[in-house]
Design a protein that fits this description.
The complex is a heterodimer of chains A (about 500) and B (about 325).
Chain A: H1 21-24, H2 37-44, H3 54-58, H4 65-73, H5 77-87, H6 91-97, H7 104-107, H8 110-113, H9 119-133, E1 147-151, H10 155-166, E2 170-174, H11 183-186, H12 195-207, E3 211-213, H13 224-229, E4 235-238, E5 244-245, E6 258-260, H14 261-270, E7 288-292, H15 296-307, E8 312-316, H16 328-336, E9 340-342, E10 345-352, E11 358-371, E12 377-381, E13 387-390, E14 393-396, E15 400-401, H17 405-409, E16 433-435, H18 438-441, H19 446-464, E17 483-484, E18 487-488
Helix pairs in contact in A: 2-4, 4-5, 5-9, 6-9, 10-19, 14-15
Chain B: H1 11-25, E1 37-42, E2 47-53, H2 55-60, E3 66-70, E4 78-81, E5 84-86, E6 91-97, H3 101-109, E7 118-123, E8 134-140, H4 144-156, E9 160-167, H5 176-182, E10 185-190, E11 197-198, H6 201-211, E12 217-221, H7 224-234, E13 240-244, E14 260-263, E15 266-269, H8 270-273, E16 276-278, H9 284-291, H10 295-318
Parallel strand pairs in B: 8-9, 8-12, 9-10, 10-11, 12-13
Antiparallel strand pairs in B: 1-2, 2-6, 3-4, 3-7, 5-6, 13-16, 14-15
Helix pairs in contact in B: 6-7
Chain lengths: ~500, ~325
């Protein structure tokens, strides 16, 4: 077969069907509808199958992207899924929520001249197919006697749990809320990540033998020290997330109608407040809603408010659209849905209606000045540009602080911002205790947290003296006699050895 | 469609539901997570006690902490201060006032043998039981129960404990014997004077302060207005006064920020920074305003629920269930 080049592949990126903007603001159904088989096969043709793929290096969990795309193209869907799920047990989730434009798709060589290969959409298609077919990653596992405790059932904890379960360990995941999934459950709305997708991919974990214990607040019900010393855990991973919402400290923040995006999203996604009074948790949505911030959480808050029937929904951000940290697709979707964006605007005061509720917000216009330490131009207020607009709800989506519970209840060393301090292997100050995700790095993305979970799992395996299955493909300079094609004969717990 | 959200519509449905849970639970009563109710007492037509099994929680619980309860899958997450815990029996006790829709539902559904959908806790920073030699433990309304473990803890540390509790009238009084067993002095205040001192708990606090000029600390738990006035009574005497705040919460783990309260001019999250704060520094007006956030929604939910219950009752009559 002739070698594929940039000239021989389909030039246009296969579009993904989306729900019409006018219709979707009325419902919570998914916005992007996903590829058909035909779409997926067509998009697979666009991958050049680079021998040294940049996309794999740019993927926080190191999915062998060209390999799975090649398998799809050849019609070996199950093999493609095994390939994919080896690195990532939650492809249907990640295909939907990863910022691919900054990762795999951002370095795709096709993207230098054309639109990059739609890796995220292919990942989602394959993940959805696996859910539909009921495929589960089920590699041979050599049972080990180790017991691993994972704190937090969000992306970091689940990725770590998956790798440790594959290594044959007994894994118990503790979750403080009554439903597992962490930010995937309480944070990301249905129209971006349906609950049935989370459920399906979590059930793959339980099929691997992972136990999930909800309603368990580690630190208060028992401590990390107790897990290690009394409950028989050989290693513990802390993936509790950053979680604690930031406010600005401007006047009027304690008025009714001011809330964090976390509260809005938790009420809606986890507690079903959109259906009140059929469900018991109320929301009290305003007729006009102003969201401060423009990251992915802000986009979710804006679009949830719109769908629940707010007449006016404003986004207030102190920098410009160019600096907007949200995933590109989310920003575009929000704009299509009629969200009003106030760029270069910062709130200075929230105004009382005289009865303890929000009636308006006073803002000031900004301009971009000199670059700050992050390299972005610092927004500077323009004197005398203050103005007021009416709104009855103000939502803060300006980031998070670390959750204080682990710090209050354990002797783990924290850094000066109160995040957990780890070394480069994600080991904490306590032997056998690892940490990763937002509680180490501060608020980031689902996939970075999953990458951290996998990294911590590798370190845990080294700590416990378990062989890391990923090491198999590394060159073995000592020329072991009991290895076959570089694969250790003992190393059966490796999916790629199994024929699909 | 609505029925899925209302599992406990009336007495007859509760009976059906009970039979299901008992068969489900038989033989599989796990140590930690079934949340089985083992005891129930009714103190009045709105106040009732439930005691549920959770050995791990009973072991971990300390005075001042709270739990979040979910009655069923569609329920609100309700924060409730722990009223008592028994490490030997492996149980935790809550005292609940049926005032909103969910608590009214709980009043009907929470019978012995029923399992709750979820209970998470203990949550919050435990009360600091310091070296105070003489303390007044004040409980009003729903706060009477949760102040008990604090009184007991102070007693165990050797302090002289004065209990002050307030009720509307004699028939609503509960746990008198429990308090008397841990208090060196015990003052009951009733609005109508049917037992003890006629007046509010603030009158009880004043009386105790008059009799003792060496009070080191006052702990007050109850409705915000009661805690506010208790703090005002002790302020001129400069007696340290700790209060336990009860703002609206969702997750209770510091994640939503719904429970923020203003203390000493700064915002604090009651669920992870509290629930205990220095009563002289708390902005109670702010707390009370925030507690009114969902008054309208709460009324709507109760109204809708009552109507539904009534219809279900009529239906059960016509179907000949009684």
């Amino acid at each position: 077969m002739a070698k594929k080049t940039i000239r021989t592949i389909p030039q246009e990126r296969t579009p993904i069907p989306v729900q019409d903007a006018a219709a979707r603001v009325e419902n919570f159904d998914e916005v992007a509808l996903g590829y058909s088989l035909e779409d997926a096969l067509n998009e697979c043709k666009r991958c050049l199958l680079c021998p040294e793929p940049a996309c794999v290096k740019a993927c926080p969990v190191a999915i062998q992207i060209p390999d799975f795309i090649d398998a799809i193209a050849k019609g070996n869907y199950r093999a493609a899924y095994d390939q994919l799920s080896d690195a990532n047990l939650m492809p249907a989730v990640c295909g939907r929520v990863c910022p691919q434009e900054d990762q795999c798709e951002g370095v795709c060589p096709v993207g230098e001249t054309l639109e990059p290969v739609a890796i995220g959409r292919l990942e989602r298609w394959l993940g959805d197919l696996a859910i539909e077919e009921g495929w589960a990653a089920n590699p041979y596992r050599k049972p080990s006697d180790f017991k691993i405790g994972i704190i937090g059932s969000g992306p970091a904890g689940m990725a770590c749990a998956a790798d440790m379960a594959k290594a044959g360990c007994e894994v118990v995941v503790y979750e403080a809320l009554h439903a597992p999934g962490g930010v995937l459950r309480y944070g990301i709305p249905e129209f971006r990540l349906p609950n049935h997708v989370i459920d399906a991919e979590l059930s793959n974990l339980t099929k691997l033998g992972v136990q999930i214990e909800c309603n368990t607040l580690v630190g208060r019900l028992f401590t990390i020290e107790q897990m290690r010393d009394e409950m028989g855990f050989d290693a513990v991973f802390v993936g509790t997330g950053a979680g604690s919402p930031k406010f600005m400290g401007i006047p009027g923040e304690s008025l009714n109608g001011v809330l964090s995006a976390n509260e809005l999203l938790t009420r809606c996604n986890l507690m079903g407040a959109g259906n009140f009074p059929a469900t018991d948790t109320p929301l009290g949505l305003g007729r006009s809603v102003a969201v401060i911030g423009s990251g992915n959480t802000a986009m979710d808050a804006l679009r949830v408010s719109k769908r629940l029937g707010a007449e006016k929904v404003y986004c207030v951000y102190r920098r410009t659209e160019a600096e907007c940290p949200a995933r590109l697709e989310e920003l575009e979707h929000a704009q299509e849905e009629g969200i009003e964006f106030h760029w270069l605007t910062a709130p200075v005061e929230i105004i009382d209606d005289g009865q303890g509720n929000v009636s308006a917000m006073r803002c000031i216009r900004m301009e971009l000045g000199e670059p700050d330490e992050s390299g972005r131009r610092r927004p500077v207020p323009i004197a005398g540009s203050e103005y007021e607009f009416e709104t009855d709800m103000v939502i803060y989506a300006i980031g998070t602080n670390p959750n204080p519970i682990i710090g209050q209840t354990s002797k783990l060393k924290l850094n000066k911002w109160n995040y957990i301090e780890t070394d480069e292997t994600l080991a904490t100050s306590m032997a056998g205790v690892y940490a990763g995700g937002d509680i180490v790095t501060g608020a980031a993305t689902v996939i970075l947290a999953m990458g951290a979970g996998r990294k911590a799992a590798r370190s845990m395996k080294t700590y416990l003296g378990l062989r890391d299955s990923n090491a198999v493909y590394d060159a073995e300079p000592d020329g072991r006699i009991d290895s076959l094609f570089g694969i250790d004969a003992e190393e059966k717990n490796f999916v790629r050895v199994r024929l699909a | 469609m609505l029925a899925s959200g209302f599992n406990f519509l009336g007495p007859w449905l509760v009976v059906l539901d009970m039979s299901r849970t008992t068969t489900d639970a038989s033989g599989s009563l796990d140590d930690v997570s079934t949340f089985e109710i083992v005891n129930r007492e009714d103190f009045s037509d709105v106040t009732f006690l439930i005691e549920f099994r959770h050995p791990q929680m009973a072991r971990a619980a300390k005075p001042g902490q709270f739990v979040i309860v979910l009655l069923d899958e569609h329920s609100e997450r309700i924060p409730l201060t722990i009223a008592d815990f028994d490490r030997d029996r492996g149980t935790v006790t809550l005292v609940i006032q049926a005032v909103g829709k969910t608590t009214k539902e709980m009043q009907i559904a929470c019978c012995v043998g029923k399992t709750l959908f979820g209970v998470v806790g203990p949550m919050g920073v435990p009360s600091h039981i310091g070296d105070a030699r003489k303390v007044i433990c004040v409980g009003g309304g729903l706060g009477v129960a949760p102040v008990y473990p604090q009184a007991r803890a102070f007693k165990e540390k050797g302090a002289y404990v004065i209990g002050v509790v307030g009720f509307r009238s004699e028939d609503l009084v509960f746990w008198r014997d429990k308090f008397e067993s841990v208090c060196d002095e015990f003052i009951i205040c009733t609005n109508d004077g049917s037992v003890g001192l006629k007046g509010m708990v603030t009158d009880g606090i004043n009386l105790a302060i008059e009799n003792h000029d060496d009070i080191d600390e006052v702990v007050a738990i109850g409705p915000p207005i009661m805690m506010k006035f208790s703090a005002e009574v002790t302020r001129p005497h400069n007696i340290k006064t700790m209060v336990s705040l009860n703002p609206i919460m969702v997750d209770g783990t510091g994640m939503c920020g719904g429970c923020r309260v203003t203390v000493d001019g700064k915002q604090q999250f009651a669920c992870v920074d509290g629930p205990d704060f220095d009563g002289h520094k708390v902005d109670f007006d702010d707390l009370m305003n925030r507690l009114d956030r969902y008054v309208e929604e709460e009324k709507l939910a109760v109204k809708k629920w009552s109507k539904h219950c009534h219809q279900t009752y009529l239906q059960s009559q016509s179907l000949g269930f009684h």
